């Protein structure tokens, strides 16, 4: 009669602790591998000295400090942010396959960033990270607004996703159009970025994303209680004393900010937002926001570190774009969720 | 007793357009109020307004002494708990988790349950006989179990008023009875005011202190069950043919078959009811007698038979009534004699059956034994 998926109340804290420990260990292992593996390999014995004491072979120190550390931190921070954005959108739409990528929000952000870059770069100026995030946020919010407006009109969850994917295509087409016509040397970068990549972040960028994503994630964590209430549905949340309107607005803002920040620095990255929260819920055996929020962040970080490692090393020296790798792992999970729900009669 | 809940000329509806107007209620603590009425009449709209999902179009709702409009969302949550018809879609939540969400308005910033919260959850679940379900995944619970869990959830919110929309929907008879008995107990023992919509008229009649009849525009009736269920009221409220609902037995009868009686049913003391219903199903018009006015066969028969030969009230059956019944019987094609017991009060009926046999009419004990020619024309 009882299903193994739900753990009994007494066994829970232990299970959570084990799961968090596993995630933390995976995070450390993947971070170390990311720092060690590459065109120049660095042994795991050398690594601690390089990272903690700047000591060792000069080239290795430079490679680790100037290229690999910023890149792995980017993957870690943005991966966490992306998973959280997905979790928030799933809560908001009460739809397990919602995420910033499938709902087109990443593409809206990308379009806004592309427009900003083309105009500012053509004027011969550099784009600040703050301006990038700002533009991405505006783009993400605008798309989110569009999706929310449509959500009121479409009945089924699958239709909402179709609408989101279409919005994504439209934004993507416009972005390509802009990029094509603005084709000059300074915009080659833009093309790489628009495919999605964790590479090329400077330490200053890492600082900005760390501040923005950390602050947003803390804010999300502080919403754990109303998120839990909202999971029971709008009416019950209202009856529990949640100010539903204000809560929905903050969900939209936080999810957009997370998706925007990720897109501004790494371009649109697929399926992390759907796959990670789903895996985490299954792994922890709970949907409790108080547990799932930090777990999603950790899980997203691990997932993106792993995928970026694959993207860099699988066909080295050719680098695959990160979205292809995340899609390879994420898309089957989405299909699995949809099949399971169909079987469940939803 | 202190008023726990009242409304002042409340009008409810959508987008500022009133659907039901002038609702005036005043419920002391521990009252059970049932809302009855046809579908779409506004029962749910009233409940939604009380739960503050909808703003009142006009007038006001008071919880205790305070107007609903002035209650903060947190205060409201500590005063009013709801059990809705929407089916809860949960993920990886045990029944205990679901109940524990009721503690939301009482927990701190992160909603972590304290010892007192756990005690309340357990107490509520035990009261609802749901404690043994605590580790069951909510999705796997049966409808009856889910409903009990949802009521435990509402209860551990420690509200003054519980609002339930169709709490008996999806439940089988046993669970309906159990659930309503529990609600009744909560009202009596804990002084919780219960406001709910019910489709089961017979249940509403038995469980409620007060009944509100909602059928469009204004409240047609509001009062104790004895008043609302006076003869014919229910028929009027629901637009039923006159006499279709019997408030005494709580039974709802179909219309009698049209035409002159073809079968005479000799009955009494409830023995005739199965025969009446069988004939009604087959569409055979019938007459029945000889009955006393207080006989249950008389109550049900008067709704189903073309003609009833009965006394009024407590009068004795006299030769005049006997003769009338005999004349009618003579014009029928067959007789069903449902009686097995005779005594001083129904000796007439034995005579009636004997006379029928003497007239050469087929006399049978049950409708299924009737000769084929009495069956309705195809």
Structure explained in plain terms:
The complex is a heterodimer of chains A (346) and B (378). Chain A has 14 helices and no strands. With 346 residues, chain A is an all-alpha fold. Residues 1-5 of chain A have low confidence and may be disordered. Chain B is α/β, with parallel strands linked by helices. Helix content of chain B is 33%, strand content 22%. In chain B, strand 12 and strand 13 form a beta hairpin. Chain B starts with a strand and ends in a 14-residue tail after the last strand. At the A-B interface, helix 9 and helix 10 of A face helix 2, strand 6 and helix 3 of B.
Features:
heterodimer, A: 346 residues, mainly alpha, ABC transporter involved in vitamin B12 uptake, BtuC, 2 domains, 14 helices, globular, disordered N terminus, B: 378 residues, alpha/beta, Rossmann fold, 6-stranded mixed sheet, 5-stranded mixed sheet, 13 helices, 18 strands, 33% helix, 22% strand
Shape of chain A: globular
Beta-sheet strand percentage of chain A?
under 5%
Largest sheet properties of chain B: 6 strands, mixed
Mind telling me which CATH architecture of the largest domain in chain B this is?
3-Layer(aba) Sandwich
Proportion in helices of chain A:
over 70%
Shape of chain B: elongated
Question: How many strand elements of chain A?
Answer: 0
Any idea of the CATH class of the largest domain in chain A? Mainly Alpha
Q: Total helix count of chain A?
A: 14
The H/E string of chain A reads HHHHHHHHHHHHHH
Q: What is the total number of structural domains of chain B?
A: 2
Pair with the most extensive interface?
A-B, 31 and 40 residues
Report the end-to-end length of chain A measured between terminal Cα atoms.
Answer: 22 Å
Number of strands of chain B: 18
User: Which CATH class of the largest domain in chain B?
Assistant: Alpha Beta
Regarding quaternary structure, what we see is heterodimer
Q: Counting H and I runs of at least 4 residues, what is the number of helices of chain B?
A: 13
Note the beta-strand portion of chain B.
15-25%
Poorly predicted spans of chain A: 1-5
